[in-house]
Design brief:
It is built from two helices and five strands. By secondary structure, the protein is of the alpha+beta class. A hairpin with a 5-residue loop joins strand 3 and strand 4.
Length: 73
C-alpha cells in the first residue's frame, strides 16, 4: 500500500476512501497491511482488496458479459 491510495468502494455512492482508513477500521496490524492482496486495473486504479472491498467500477450488472472469479486457497 502507498500513502494516499484510495478505492471507490461499492456502497460509498461515488466517494473514495483511503486504504489507510480502511485498514484502521478493520484493525489491521502492520503485517496484515503487507499481506493483503490488492488488485489494480490497467489505469493503476484499485478495484479490489481481496476479501474486504470491491470497487463500484467492477460491479456486476445486467450489462456484464464476462466475470473473473478469484478465490484464495
Amino acid at each position: 500500500m502507498h500513502t494516499g491510495d484510495k478505492i471507490k468502494s461499492f456502497g460509498l455512492h461515488g466517494q473514495s476512501k483511503k486504504l489507510s482508513d480502511i485498514a484502521q477500521e478493520l484493525n489491521w496490524t502492520a503485517n496484515d497491511k503487507l499481506s493483503n492482496n490488492i488488485i489494480i486495473d490497467r489505469d493503476s486504479e484499485i478495484i479490489a482488496i481481496l476479501g474486504y472491498r470491491i470497487s463500484e467500477k467492477v460491479m456486476i450488472d445486467h450489462n456484464s458479459h464476462q466475470i473473473l472469479i478469484i478465490q484464495r486457497p
